[in-house]
Amino acid sequence: MRKSSQYIEVNHGKLRVSVPRCVFRKDGTTDPVEERSFRDLMASRYPWLNERSLDVMMEAAIKEMAATLALERRGAPIGRELSDKDPQKAISYLERHLEHEPQDAEAWYALGEVLCKVGLTDDGYRALKRGRELR
């Protein structure tokens, strides 16, 4: 699952693991203390997992976290960047993004801003309201 949640889901063989997002910093790197705690928890629950197995699992989690962060960052930032150059293109981009990620509050805010910028204030206010509702 690549939506924002409290966990990053990864597979390790047939084992599906929910890695808490608190294991990661905002830039996607792991927090050493949180990672060690998570590794210890996994080793206690699944004693057959050795250090190398945990390394492989964490590598998969880091990749999944990077993909998740990329997905979460693409909506509003790109929409805002486009709105400076081509507001209509920004509106189209954000609307397409929100079809796939309707829970992205920041993208709703960005859409509201650009709609207001081009004079579509009623639609803009509705989009801003939707963003507030999702917070």
What is this structure's SSE topology?
Elements: E1 7-12, E2 15-20, H1 32-45, H2 51-85, H3 87-100, H4 105-117, H5 121-134
Helix pairs in contact: 2-3, 2-4, 3-4, 4-5
Keywords:
135 residues, mainly alpha, Serine Threonine Protein Phosphatase 5, Tetratricopeptide repeat, 2 domains, two-stranded antiparallel ribbon, 5 helices, 9% strand, elongated
Spatially, the strands of the biggest sheet line up as 1-2
Helix content: 55-70%
The helix/strand order is EEHHHHH
How many individual domains? Answer: 2
Number of helices: 5
Low-confidence stretches: none
User: What amount of the residues lies in strands?
Assistant: 5-15%
Estimate the global geometry from the Cα principal axes: elongated
Rg: 19 Å
Average pLDDT score: 91
Which structural class matches the secondary elements?
mainly alpha
Biggest sheet features: 2 strands, antiparallel
In angstroms, what separates the terminal alpha carbons? 20 Å
* Extended strand count: 2
What's the short version?
Helix content is 67%, strand content 9%. The chain has 135 residues and is mainly alpha-helical.
